[in-house]
UniProtKB/TrEMBL annotation:
Species of provenance: Gordonia pseudamarae
Superkingdom assignment: Bacteria
CDD domains listed in its UniProt record: HAM1 (cd00515)
Protein name in the entry: dITP/XTP pyrophosphatase
Active site: 73 (proton acceptor)
Signal sequence region: none
Needed co-factor(s): Mg(2+)
Homology family: Belongs to the HAM1 NTPase family.
EC code: 3.6.1.66
C-alpha cells in the first residue's frame, strides 16, 4: 500500500480531491490529508502561476512528510478582468477564504459588463511530487460565464457565480450541480484525470 498526502487546507476542496481520486478506483493507494500528518511550516503561495503554487504546496508537503504529495492550486480567471482574480482568487476581497466577500466583490466589479463579455474559466493546476523529488504538473480548465447573482449552495468558493458552458449544466450554476456532475466537468476533475496514470504507477511502485 502506498500512502499519498493531499496537501490542502480547504476542507471542501480536499473533499473533491478525495472524491475524484477515489472514483478513479486506483487500488493500493491510501489517501491522507494534512490533518493526518504532523504539522509543518507552509510556505506562502506567492507564485506567478497556478502551476508554481501547486508545486510550492506539493514540494513542501513531500519534503516535510517524506510522502508522495498531491496539491491543487486553482481559481477563476475572468476574461473581462484580463484573467483576474487568477492566483489571487482565494483572497480577492483581501481576506483569505472569505467566499461571501470574494463573490460580492467580483459581482460588483462585473456589474457593468454586458452578457456577451462575461466569459470566464475555472483553472486547476495539480502537482504530484514524489519522494525522489520528481514531479508531474497538470492543468484542467472549465469554461463558462459569470452570473449576475449567486445561485445554489453546493460546492464552494465561486461556484454560485459560475455558469458552465457544458450542455449538461444548461441553466444551472456549478453550485447547482451534484457532486458527480461537477467532478465530471470541472477543472479539478480534468486535471486529476490527467494524473491518474501517474497515480496508478505510484500505487504499483514499492516505494
Ligand atoms: O491552497 P489550499 O490549502 O489548497 O486551499 P485554498 O482555498 O487556499 O485554495 P487555492 O489557494 O488554490 O485558492 C483557490 C480559490 O479559488 C476558488 N476556487 C477554486 N476551485 C474552485 C471551485 O471548484 N469552485 C469554486 N471556487 C473555486 C476558491 O475561492 C478557492 O479558495
Ligand atoms: Mg491556498
Amino acid at each position: 500500500m502506498t500512502t499519498i498526502l493531499l496537501a490542502s487546507r480547504n476542507a471542501k476542496k480536499l473533499k473533491e480531491l478525495r472524491r475524484v481520486v477515489a472514483a478513479a478506483g486506483i487500488t493500493g493507494l491510501e489517501v491522507v490529508g494534512l490533518d493526518d500528518v504532523p504539522g509543518y511550516t507552509e510556505l506562502p503561495e506567492d507564485g506567478a502561476t497556478f502551476e508554481d503554487n501547486a508545486l510550492i504546496k506539493a514540494r513542501t508537503g513531500a519534503a516535510a512528510t517524506g510522502l508522495p504529495t498531491l496539491a491543487d492550486d486553482s481559481g477563476i480567471s475572468v476574461d473581462a478582468l484580463n484573467g483576474m482574480p487568477g492566483v489571487l482568487s482565494a483572497r480577492w476581497s483581501g481576506t483569505h477564504g472569505d467566499d461571501a466577500a470574494n463573490n460580492a466583490l467580483l459581482l460588483a466589479q462585473l456589474s457593468d459588463v454586458p452578457d456577451d463579455r462575461r466569459g470566464a474559466a475555472f483553472v486547476s493546476a495539480c502537482a504530484l511530487v514524489r519522494p525522489d523529488g520528481t514531479d508531474t504538473v497538470v492543468r484542467g480548465e472549465w469554461r463558462g460565464t459569470m452570473a449576475r447573482e449567486a445561485h445554489g449552495t453546493n460546492g464552494f468558493g465561486y461556484d454560485p457565480l459560475f455558469l458552465p458552458a457544458d450542455d449538461l449544466a444548461a441553466g444551472r450554476s456549478s453550485a447547482e450541480l451534484s457532486a458527480e456532475e461537477k467532478d465530471a466537468l470541472s477543472h479539478r476533475g480534468k486535471a486529476l484525470a490527467a494524473l491518474v496514470p501517474d497515480l496508478r504507477a505510484l500505487a504499483n511502485s514499492t516505494g
